[in-house]
Write a structure and sequence with these properties.
The chain is α+β, with helices and mostly antiparallel strands. The protein has helices at about 45-60, 125-130, 135-140, and strands spanning about 10-15, 20-25, 35, 35-40, 70-80, 95-105, 115-125. Strands 1, 2, 3, 4, 5, 6 and 7 form a seven-stranded mixed beta sheet that branches. A hairpin with a 4-residue loop joins strand 1 (about 10-15) and strand 2. About 25% of the residues are buried. GO terms for molecular function: bis(5'-nucleosyl)-tetraphosphatase (asymmetrical) activity; dATP diphosphatase activity; dihydroneopterin triphosphate pyrophosphohydrolase activity; metal ion binding. InterPro entries: DHNTPase, NUDIX_hydrolase-like_dom_sf, NUDIX_hydrolase_dom, Nudix_hydrolase_domain. Its cofactor is Mg(2+).
């Protein structure tokens, strides 16, 4: 039996307001695709649990241990899955529901990559312009200033 991804995910925009910087990650499977932390919900996970897990897995930032203020925007969007990623989902699945979170950091953290090839701390406009994801762009542009 194939293990397909659940078509429900989180987007976590990590930023440092005082520095006006947003963390952007470059995908391993597409060197032209930059994004914020993302990940699909696993069985029995809430979106918040997924956000905490994905941030730790993708950046090594431990939200719980560092007592960081993960902000649930209580906003979600349904979007068409990029064609190059459809094979990860069950046949016929073309849409994904994404829950948005913000993670404001007190300073720029060192990042340990595990699922991405590179990272950058960019100003809000640069970060929004860099991503191919319209959702990710919109979430960055809605960040508290």
């Amino acid at each position: 039996m194939l293990n397909y991804k659940k078509p429900e995910s989180v987007l976590v925009v990590i930023y440092v307001a005082t520095a006006k910087k947003v963390l952007m990650l470059r995908r391993n499977d597409d060197p032209t695709f930059w994004q914020s932390v993302t990940g699909s919900l696993e069985d029995n996970e809430t979106p918040r649990m997924t956000a905490i897990r994905e941030v730790k897995e993708e950046t090594s930032i431990n939200i719980v241990m560092d007592n960081l203020p993960l902000i649930d925007t209580h906003y979600s969007i349904v979007f068409d899955i990029f064609p190059q990623f459809l094979h990860r989902y069950a046949p016929g699945v073309t849409k994904n529901k994404e829950h948005w979170f913000y993670l404001p950091l007190p300073h720029i953290y060192p990042i340990k990559l595990t699922e991405h090839s590179q990272y950058q701390w960019l100003d809000y406009q640069q970060a929004a312009a860099l991503t191919k994801s319209i959702n990710n762009r919109d979430a960055i542009l809605r960040l508290p200033r």
